[in-house]
Specification:
This protein is of the alpha+beta class. The chain has a single domain (about 1-125, about 180-260), classed as Nucleotidyltransferase, domain 5. The chain is about 30% helix and about 25% strand. It has five helices and nine strands. α1 (about 65-80) packs parallel to α2.
Length: about 270
């Protein structure tokens, strides 16, 4: 199936980013989770989590460059060379933030890749769950469904192309598809190849349930949820200790990041990915 791509799997890293917002003692914060592949089958993963202030514009990650740098350097540590292609699936609360992601996050990513290795080609897709559109044509083979609404609409995002895809039939939400909005395509992949890339990225999930998002994206969501459990424990402990409001938000963020930090030697184990 990897032969369907125009990218060399041995030189390609797939990375997913998700974020979620929360509040502690009236401080608005957000949690970011990143999971990235580091093998040619896109089946071994490395993860990172980070808490930061959720300042205007909301839900835009100021530390996205640090998280991506850690992932790309881990890839280098395994192979002794950097990936030629970096594919990023960006999820989370992005519906109203596409322009800010382009203007802020993409620029940070460009800067860090320029510092690491300027020859890395970047492909970035934003993910959003949405209902099937009535005009979408569904071709079904077994339980695999591909929505041919891939005529690459640019009505809503004038600077981007988008398509709908359901790589596995979703038993829980059979009416839902995943919308992919392409905001960067340095490799000049055709529309068909972009669809293949998104589709293949969902096919190496080995757990029981079907999924309709890339595997790295699902693991990033799981890392995020696991980190939120640790944050909830952190909040309860502060409440039990009678902690008062923290005037220094950076001190609070540092304490939370120390709570959810995963030891480096465990970051590539399946339990954490």
């Amino acid at each position: 199936m990897l032969s369907m791509l125009d990218l060399d799997p041995k030189r390609t890293q797939i990375l997913a980013i998700v974020n979620d917002s929360f509040e502690i003692e009236e401080n608005k914060l957000q949690l970011a989770s990143v999971v990235s592949s580091y093998d040619e089958n896109f089946s071994h993963f490395f993860n990172g989590v980070q808490v930061e202030a959720n300042e205007n514009p909301r839900n835009i990650l100021k530390s996205v460059d640090l998280l991506i740098e850690e992932s790309v350097r881990y890839y280098y540590g395994v192979h002794k060379y950097y990936p030629e292609n970096l594919v990023i699936f960006r999820g989370g609360k992005i519906t109203e933030n596409i322009e800010n992601i382009v203007d802020i996050e993409l620029k940070k990513i460009d800067c860090v890749l320029e510092k690491i290795n300027s020859s890395i080609k970047l492909t970035v897709m934003l993910l959003n769950k949405k209902p099937y559109e009535k005009r979408a044509y569904i071709s079904q083979v077994g339980q695999n469904r591909l929505l041919s609404n891939a005529i690459f609409d640019s009505r809503c995002e004038p600077f981007a192309d988008s398509f709908d895809l359901c790589s596995h039939f979703n038993r829980i939400e059979p009416h839902m598809s995943t919308k992919y909005t392409v905001i960067r395509n340095d490799s000049m992949l055709s529309n068909e190849k972009l669809i293949n890339l998104a589709y293949i990225s969902c096919q190496n999930y080995f757990r029981k349930n079907h999924i309709d998002v890339p595997t790295s994206f699902r693991y990033a969501e799981q890392c995020k949820e696991r980190s939120k459990l640790h944050i909830n424990i952190f909040c309860k402990e502060r409440l039990n200790e009678g902690a008062k409001d923290v005037s220094d938000i950076q001190l609070l963020i540092k304490s939370i990041n120390n709570t959810i930090k995963v030891p480096f030697n465990l970051k590539s184990l399946p339990y954490y990915c």
